[in-house]
User: What shape does this take?
Amino acid sequence: MWKVRKISPFLLLLAIGLVLLLKLWAPTTGSSPSSFVNTAGGSFLSNATPMDLRAFYDKDPSFDAPGCWRAVPRGLQTLANVPFRIEGLIQLWGEGPARIGRVYRESVEGIPATGKFQTLYVLHGSSFTTPQGIPIAAVVFRFVDGSAATNLIHYGTDSRDWWQPVDEQNPIPTNSPSQVVWHGDHPSLPDWVKCLRLFGTAIPNPKPECGVRGIDLFSTKSRTTWVVLALTEGPSGLLKAEPQAEEDEDASTPEITLKLKALDKDSRQPVADIRFRVIVQSGRKPRPSGIFSADEKGEVVVNLPPERLRRFSIQTVSDDYPTTEMSWNLEGGEKIPTNYVFQLSKTGH
Assistant: This one.
């Protein structure tokens, strides 16, 4: 006859706890070890998924034509901690480009989504400006239950001209869902353009527990064309701009004061009445900044207004001495001295 043994409540609870732990450790069929569960009860893959936009990009060749778009990185790129697939442009109608013959689509609809995700990450920029706060585009989530959610993109707070002007003062607001995620340059840019830039925007999904069947993009018919390069589905909190991506726009540049002097290399005597031609480069091309005449001691003080210079050079101009030039590459880390002496020789050696 079997004997029935009584199990203490403590041992029973211990056994139940072990069973539950084993179930938690065991992998669930069809789910990723990196998945997580949100407070609404829906599960999401923590890996972000770049969307395939090749069927939706503009058919015109501007992205691959010679010009500024050549500076933009291509293919699968990670910008500000978000993976993007960059293979073309979606440009939405804007009054500014339309007036010069660049007429784009008013909407791009039915971009397929994979299902459930927390955040849509958009890599984008703008062409032409409009007043701060004006809506320039709408991003619409189409859910599998037939509902929709519209998100507006505002100029100045979410997106700006991708040609950043030198005189732009205020950065993107700190509470904006957008950040500058890429800076670039191209030799064809005019000097009033500081650099090229692209923005990353994190758009929260208001119904993360409900599947998203598609994304629509609409122009709001403003002056500005909104340009989308990539879309990525993923969890929230991915967008983390690199420290160097957003430059300090308020950083002050001191006035440049430089005392120049010219001496004859052989006699060590001052070269009177010599002139110094100053050439500066703050943009992509050098430009003359003035010609300064020395006194009887061969000296002159050059004062230049505050400016972010890339390169700085000085040429001597004299009827008796060959031209001599000295330059400093500020981009390469060189510093302009407060005093500089040219030693000139009539033979040029």
